[in-house]
């Protein structure tokens, strides 16, 4: 799906927003090198079920890779990333001729030339079988359409996968039901994904298989079961199937199937297209190149996929969910498949800005997660997973409340969420990635020591300090006791304990108060998480002025920022005993030590705004957008990570970015398009204009906000929500007189 147009003949009004989306961007990836590490998610925004063509073997996290030439099936997936792998998965595969059950044997050659990939629709020609397969989803169901040749041996194989599955064929109802238990962790013992598939044509044969062996029954339960139904078809005959699943029961799966109702395939397809156009169309862009349009809307598509809905609507129309924490079926919302270490930075702030009512439901889901597990998840897929560091649920909860409450959207149990934050901030969890590992050291010493057996200790300290700031902000808003408010304000300054004045960098510290030695700032991992000291030194989101002061002033601070880009991309991988893909992606990018392919440093570009040199933020924001994001299968510069890397691009293309969630400021950069219109949920509009914008004019010469000169390097959330007109005058040389006065600088706790 690549729309050919030149800048001269291009007219945006000729295409819907969804027509610009290419779900194949980022699929040219592998474990050793990520260009996104995504699959083409055929789904509705935040849908419970995604679908994808499956090129990888069963259980392979790289379910679809662009370089593959065979498709093994069409898989229902809930995979958030290849590293987390999948759950609730099964596949459907049409074949003709000789009956083939095993996935490698039944796999068919295909070509991208005979493949159509859209967010709401997928089609491909399976060359080995002369069959065209089409699919189009709803939130919890999907329609399939198979176009067969003339044959007496047309089949559909339903593979329920291994590690425990069940299938029953009901010929008189043209139906197959079953369940899969295959998962990658984070589920209770009673976990099942129940599915139902109905066809519109009588079966000419039906068989079940267990571990590849034919069974003499239409009902089979074993480690790995497969069902096959057959048809006699005329040339070009279309066989339709409706499929849905549920984490609750077979009855609920049948209820979820009613999302399709009496609609035929094309009607479901058009409804899906309309839904995507509605959500993508909330951001209207103009005045850019075709490639910029493709890149922008493809990134916006990825921004609107996670966290996915993990709730269902019962026969009475009530919201219910299977709890991935205690295995019970309970009322209320639940969302999952996101890691806050990644997504607190810009994904959730984007939802708070553009989709506040949905964000409020996500907060309700977090209330339920806490009640059902005793903890807030830091990485949920679908339940608690022991991955990454930090206590960044604090940021997600605080930023949502502080922004939604001002719009009267925070009608959920914030007191229970505050209780959850306090609990998580003062206790180690059942998993290292839940609560705070090393919390007693952190609370007593003000840091997690390097030499007490807790990995990635410096990174934990820095993130805990920022998390404490977000709790401080929320505590103030909720009018908590002054002593409690001041405690978290004080703890938010703990980042200072790891600052090494000799190197002007953050450094691991021993329990006795001495810095760890020897110190190699290029060493990945060890005291840091998927990065080195050059990346994590900037993780003081809430108090950049405090960091500036530690470094000796703004000139030294800017010098250190500049050095990130001028250093060679050298690294020490000894902690990992090999070069991890994040290291390699930094090395090849030719941007020095700037590692945009991973999250810890993604905000760093915008920090020039705090130090009187905003034009450098403008330069590097545009440089990163132009260089690191492309509308091609290798279009990302590392893991896309559940919308975070995409949300960075979306915000940056608008011209501002939320450096410190749980504050009310967005920090200015360089807008990418000549005109953007954001349609807010409250009916207000944000209009962004940069009429003389182009590739060469990346610097902000002047800015007017609602007709008044605006020299500040930030804009306020409430002002945006009230509707705003931003008029940028762009130039090819920096304006070094704008945004350099004390009142122009963004918020820092030290300046409060």
UniProtKB/TrEMBL annotation:
Cofactors (names): Ca(2+)
Keywords linked to the UniProt accession: Calcium, Hydrolase
Record-annotated Glycosyl hydrolase family 92 N-terminal domain positions: 20-246
A Pfam short name: Glyco_hydro_92
Molecular function per GO: hydrolase activity
PANTHER family: PEPTIDE N-GLYCANASE PNGASE -RELATED, PUTATIVE-RELATED
Protein name: GH92 family glycosyl hydrolase
């Amino acid at each position: 799906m690549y729309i050919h147009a030149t800048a001269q003949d291009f007219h945006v009004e000729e295409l819907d927003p969804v027509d610009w989306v290419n779900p194949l961007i980022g699929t040219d990836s592998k474990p050793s090198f990520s260009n996104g590490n995504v699959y083409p998610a055929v789904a509705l925004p935040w849908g419970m079920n995604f679908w994808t063509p499956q090129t990888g073997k069963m259980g392979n996290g790289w379910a679809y890779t662009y370089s593959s030439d065979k498709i093994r099936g069409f898989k229902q997936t809930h995979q958030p990333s290849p590293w987390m792998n999948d759950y609730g998965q099964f596949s459907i595969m049409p074949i003709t001729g000789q009956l083939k059950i095993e996935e490698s044997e039944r796999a068919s050659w295909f070509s991208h030339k005979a493949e159509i990939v859209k967010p709401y629709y997928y089609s491909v020609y399976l060359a080995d079988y002369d069959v065209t397969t089409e699919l189009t989803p709803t939130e919890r169901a999907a329609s399939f359409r198979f176009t067969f040749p003339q044959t007496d041996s047309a089949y559909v194989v339903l593979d329920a996968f291994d590690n425990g599955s069940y299938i029953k064929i009901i010929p008189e109802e043209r139906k197959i039901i079953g369940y899969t238990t295959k998962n990658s962790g984070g589920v209770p013992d009673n976990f099942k994904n129940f599915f139902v598939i109905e066809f519109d044509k009588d079966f000419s044969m039906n068989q079940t298989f267990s571990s590849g062996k034919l069974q003499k029954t239409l009902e089979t339960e074993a480690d790995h079961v497969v069902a096959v139904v057959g048809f006699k078809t005329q040339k070009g005959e279309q066989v339709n199937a409706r499929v849905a699943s549920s984490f609750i029961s077979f009855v609920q799966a049948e209820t979820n199937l009613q999302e399709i109702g009496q609609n035929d395939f094309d009607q479901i397809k058009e409804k899906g297209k309309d839904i995507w156009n509605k959500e993508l169309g909330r951001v209207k862009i103009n005045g850019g190149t075709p490639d910029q349009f493709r890149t922008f809307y493809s990134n916006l598509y990825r921004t609107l996929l996670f966290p996915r809905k993990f709730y269902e609507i019962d026969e009475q129309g009530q919201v219910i969910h299977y709890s991935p924490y205690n295995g019970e079926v309970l009322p209320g919302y639940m969302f999952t498949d996101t890691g806050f270490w990644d997504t607190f930075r810009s994904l959730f702030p984007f939802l708070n800005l553009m989709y506040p009512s949905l964000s409020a439901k996500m907060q309700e889901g977090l209330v339920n997660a806490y009640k059902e597990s005793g903890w807030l998840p830091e990485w949920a897929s679908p339940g608690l997973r022991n991955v990454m560091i930090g206590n960044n649920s604090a940021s997600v909860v605080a930023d949502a409340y502080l922004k939604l409450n001002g719009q009267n959207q925070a009608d959920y149990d914030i007191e229970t969420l505050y209780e959850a934050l306090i609990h998580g901030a003062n206790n180690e969890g059942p998993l290292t990635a839940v609560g705070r590992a090393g919390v007693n050291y952190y609370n007593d010493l003000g840091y997690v020591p390097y030499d007490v057996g807790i990995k990635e200790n410096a990174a934990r300290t820095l993130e805990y300090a920022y998390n404490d700031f977000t709790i401080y902000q929320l505590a103030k808003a909720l009018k908590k006791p002054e002593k409690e408010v001041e405690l978290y304000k004080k703890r938010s300054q703990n980042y200072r304990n790891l600052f090494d004045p000799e190197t002007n960098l953050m450094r691991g510290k021993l329990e006795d108060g001495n810095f760890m030695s020897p110190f190699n700032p290029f060493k990945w991992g060890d005291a840091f998480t998927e990065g080195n000291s050059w990346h994590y030194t900037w993780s003081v989101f809430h108090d950049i002025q405090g960091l500036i002061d530690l470094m000796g002033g703004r000139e030294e601070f800017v010098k250190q920022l500049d050095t990130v880009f001028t250093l060679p991309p050298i690294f020490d991988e000894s902690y990992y005993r090999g070069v991890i893909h994040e290291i390699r992606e930094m090395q090849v990018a030719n941007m020095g030590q700037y590692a945009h392919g991973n999250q810890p440093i993604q905000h760093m570009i915008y920090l020039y705004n705090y130090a009187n040199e905003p034009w450098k933020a403008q330069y590097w924001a545009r440089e990163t957008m132009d260089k690191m994001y492309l509308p091609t299968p290798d279009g990302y510069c590392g893991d896309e990570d559940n919308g975070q890397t995409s949300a960075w691009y979306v915000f940056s293309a608008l011209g501002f970015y939320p450096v410190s969630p749980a504050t009310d400021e967005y920090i200015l950069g360089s807008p990418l398009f000549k005109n953007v219109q954001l349609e807010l949920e409250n009916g207000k509009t944000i209009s962004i204009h940069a009429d003389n914008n182009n590739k060469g004019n990346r610097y902000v010469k002047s800015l007017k906000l609602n007709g008044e000169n605006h020299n500040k390097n930030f804009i306020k959330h409430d002002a945006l929500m009230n509707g705003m007109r931003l008029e940028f005058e762009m130039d090819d040389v920096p304006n070094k007189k704008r945004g350099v006065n004390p009142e122009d600088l963004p918020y820092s706790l030290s300046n409060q």
